[in-house]
Amino acid sequence: MKAGRAMLLALALCGCGALDRSQAPAETRTAAPAAVAPRSVAEALVAHLAHLRGMNEAALATEAARHRRDTSDAGRLKAALALALNPQSDDREILALVDPIARKDNGDRDARAVAGFLQVIAGERHRMREAAAASGNRLREEHRLHEAQKARADALQQKLDALTDLEKSLSDRPTPSR
Description:
It contains seven helices and no strands. The protein has helices at 2-14, 16-22, 41-52, 57-68, 73-85, 91-103, 109-172. α1 packs antiparallel against α3 (41-52) and α5 packs parallel to α7.
């Protein structure tokens, strides 16, 4: 969930330059049509992220599949965004979508920045999943050791009880007279 919030913040920051342009004084602004097309890839991705934000996992998977068919950088980034928001998605798939964009020297700067950000997100998700799996393994091992110690303690308690019973039975015997 933290990764999703961080992604929203980073994408919002990518679009800040575009927002600053739209905040020009009223005298310099002209009447804009009702549906204004985004001016940059960053603006388009921020708008797409807002669209994705409320979707469930199935809808995110469908959206990712739809955008995977678009081989443009923007389409690949939209698919990667949908996958990044889906907790069940494969991090390698995200990396496969964004790595070529991040490596482009002549590509759109905003697209490369978002691709780099998504690379970091996918890497962090992968590390978190590995850490969670390792923690789960450690927890299972500790639980197994705890159960073994409990079984050993129970066995020792049974032996102690048997010795105590033996001691009582020996002390209850009448002492032989000479």
